[in-house]
Design brief:
This is Cytochrome b. This protein has helices at 2-7, 12-15, 22-48, 54-81, 93-123, 144-179, 183-187; strands at residues 129-130, 134-135. By secondary structure, the chain is mostly helical. The longest helix has 36 residues, at 144-179. Bound molecules: protoporphyrin IX containing FE (2 copies). One protoporphyrin IX containing FE (HEM) binds at residues 35, 38-39, 42-43, 61-62, 65-66, 68-69, 110, 113-114, 117-118, 120-121, 124, 128, 147-148, 151, 154-155, 158, 161.
Length: 190
C-alpha cells in the first residue's frame, strides 16, 4: 500500500490517501490527551479545587509533565526515522512552511517546557516522578529564587504552547471544513 501511494509521486490528491503510520498517530493522540490533562491540572483544577488539594495537583502535574517529556523523546526518535506523508500539492508555500514550523515547534516546546518544569521543581526542593512512580534525578540544587525565575520561563513556554495549539487546531479545522481535503484523515486512527 505504501508502495502504490509512493508510485503516485509527491503531492497531489492520490498522495493524500497516504496516512501517517499507526505509531505516529498513536503518539499524536496520546500527547494530545496528556497535554489536555496537563493544562487542566495547571490552569483549571487549582481554581476549582480547595487549597488542601494543592499538593496532589502538583504531584500530578509533575508526573504527567515528565511523562510528556518521555513520550516526546520517543516520538522524536520515531519521527526522525519516519518522514511524514507529502503535503497537498495545492497548498501554498507559505501555509506549508507555517504548518511545518508549527509541527517542529511542538517538538521543541514539548521537550523544553517539561525540562524547565523539572528544573523549577528541583529548585523548589521537589522530586518529579516519571509516570508518578519513578523519581527523576536532580538537575539543579534547591534555590527558591532560581525556582521562581525558571518558573516564569516555564509559564512563558506554556503560553507559547497554547498559541501553537490554537494555530494548529485552526489549521486542522481549515483543512476539514474549508478545503475539505484529506489532511485530517491522515491523522485520524483507523
Ligand atoms: C507539557 C508540559 C507542561 C505544561 C503545559 C505545563 C504548564 C504549566 C503552567 C501553565 C504552569 C503555571 C501554573 C500557575 O501557576 O498558574 C506551570 C507551573 C509549574 N510547572 Fe508545569 N507544565 C508542564 C510540565 C511540567 C513538568 C514536567 C514539571 C516538572 C517536572 C513542571 C513543573 C511545574 C512547576 C514546579 C510549576 C510552578 C512554577 C512556579 O509557579 O514558579 N511542569 N506549568
Ligand atoms: C495538544 C494538542 C496537539 C498537539 C501538541 C499536536 C501536535 C502535532 C504534531 C507535532 C504534528 C506533526 C506530526 C509529525 O509530522 O510528526 C501534528 C499533526 C497533525 N495534527 Fe496535531 N496536535 C494537537 C492537536 C490536534 C487536534 C485537536 C487535531 C484535529 C482537530 C489535530 C490534527 C492534526 C493533523 C490532521 C495532523 C497532520 C497534519 C499534516 O498531515 O500535515 N491535532 N500534530
Amino acid at each position: 500500500m505504501g508502495m502504490s501511494a509512493e508510485a503516485h509521486g509527491a503531492g497531489g490528491a492520490a498522495a493524500l490517501d497516504q496516512p501517517y503510520d499507526g505509531v505516529s498517530r498513536t503518539f499524536h493522540w496520546l500527547v494530545v490527551a496528556l497535554v489536555l490533562m496537563q493544562i487542566t491540572l495547571a490552569l483549571v483544577l487549582p481554581s476549582l479545587l480547595p487549597k488542601s488539594a494543592e499538593d496532589s495537583i502538583t504531584a500530578w502535574h509533575l508526573g504527567t509533565g515528565s511523562t510528556i517529556l518521555l513520550v516526546m523523546l520517543l516520538r522524536l526518535g520515531w519521527r526522525l526515522a519516519h518522514p511524514m506523508p507529502p503535503a497537498p500539492s495545492d497548498l501554498s508555500a507559505g501555509l506549508r512552511i507555517l504548518a511545518r514550523t508549527t509541527h517542529w515547534a511542538f517538538y521543541l516546546v514539548l521537550i523544553v517546557l517539561p525540562l524547565l518544569g523539572w528544573m523549577a521543581a528541583n529548585a523548589y526542593g521537589a522530586t518529579p516522578r516519571l509516570l508518578g512512580l519513578i523519581p527523576l534525578p536532580r538537575l539543579v540544587a534547591p534555590d527558591q529564587a532560581f525556582g521562581e525565575a525558571i518558573g516564569v520561563v516555564h509559564k512563558t513556554f506554556a503560553t507559547v504552547l497554547l498559541g501553537l495549539i490554537v494555530m494548529h487546531v485552526s489549521g486542522a479545522l481549515y483543512h476539514a471544513f474549508v478545503k475539505r481535503d484529506g489532511v485530517i484523515r491522515r491523522m485520524i486512527p483507523g
